[in-house]
Amino acid sequence: MTSTLTQFDQYAADYAALSGESQHQRVRDLRANAWRRFLDEGLPTARRGNEKWKYTNVGPIASANFRHGGDAEDTAAATERAREQLRGTALLTDGWTNLVFVDGRFSAALSSPLALANGVRAMSLEDAIAAGEPDVERRLAEYARPEDDGFVALNTAFVRDGAYVRVGEGVKADSPIHLVFCSTASDEPVATHPRTLVVAEEGSAATIVESYVGPADARYFTNSVTEMALERGAGVDHHRLLLESEQAYHVGVARVRQAEDSVYTSKSFEKGPAIGRYDLAVTLDGPGSYCDLGGLYMTSGRQHMDNFINIDHAEPYGTSRLYYKGILSGRSRAVFGGTVWVREGAIKTDSLQSDKNLVLSPQAEVDSKPALYIYADDVKCGHGATAGNISEDTVFYMRSRGVDLETASRLLIYGFASEIIDTVQLDELRDFLEGIFLESLPSYKFEF
Q1: Cβ neighbours of residue 207 under 8 Å, at least 6 residues apart?
Q2: How large is the average pLDDT for residues 408-434?
Q3: Is position 47 within any domain?
Q4: For residue 421, what are the domain limits?
Q5: Model pTM?
């Protein structure tokens, strides 16, 4: 057991109320097993013997008294609050399928589920459970299991709603599917546990955008879990936007399984929460599979952002690319960790892993710990990490062209970030991200 929760009664009361709801038998069993696991495991507050959480203190989350969000009596009022909030914080684009969840519950009033191509399903997980969807029966909690982590166990114990996306064999989804998880302000701090399951069948293709937003200065906790299964030759382009309140806590877990010749691309953009964590693990479980994982995180004040990214080359002829960048200012802290595993027999693996950080303040700190474990011959692998400021020569070059110091500084900082932003193929999303990060750039002048 890694820890003991100091605030326990609220979770127990909310679990008891939720377990009384009528749900599918497998879901009831899943919840019960996960709750028992959570009681044994707790949350990872221990510092010793807890390498995955070595640099991130989740004590503020473990000790807080969060009420379970999405209660029926709060839904109508929360929907109206969310309607106003979404106008300024989320990208709700015409032509996309937008599924909106308010405090963990699906909101039909705020969603715009367009007519999807034949063979594409996008719906709330609660409806999918009620309909007895075979994928939910077979795959829910198959890739992200309660024994993986105390946060996964807690999420699974509270499984009720979230998103379910299925793309049928050979089908190409003709528009992005946008999953928006919106937290609202309330008198008491609220915890939500959204769950997402995406299944891309053989030869299919889809673009998934996953956004987490909340009102400025509101205190709440989002504990999300996403599971994705890509069958042979399938392709998923996944964008994850973490745009939470500066007083919020967010722990996100994603598990991706790739079959033969599948292609998974992921772009993660993170700013906002007081404590943020993204735990992404991709298993290349078929020959010739490919993944490209990129990320951009920005921290300021006393924010803490932790990216724990792992790639498992379980089969031969796999290719992976991992490239994350961070911009730190104030007294903030960032953590980048994770491992690329090359299993025995995974010959011809090609893997590159890189983390680069622009540290704008002497009080900011970054801990970067990429790792490679190689158990096969005939592979090409590399990794690296950097942290520092812009060189004096670069600033001098900009100034010599007549650019003032503050403008030169902002251009250089944005140039550092744009290498990740420019990889986004969706024009609307790329423009949105440019605006978000340009607006968030710190007022800074490089001085030497």
Answers
A1: 173, 175, 176, 177, 236, 237, 238, 239, 426
A2: 91
A3: no
A4: 391-448
A5: 0.93
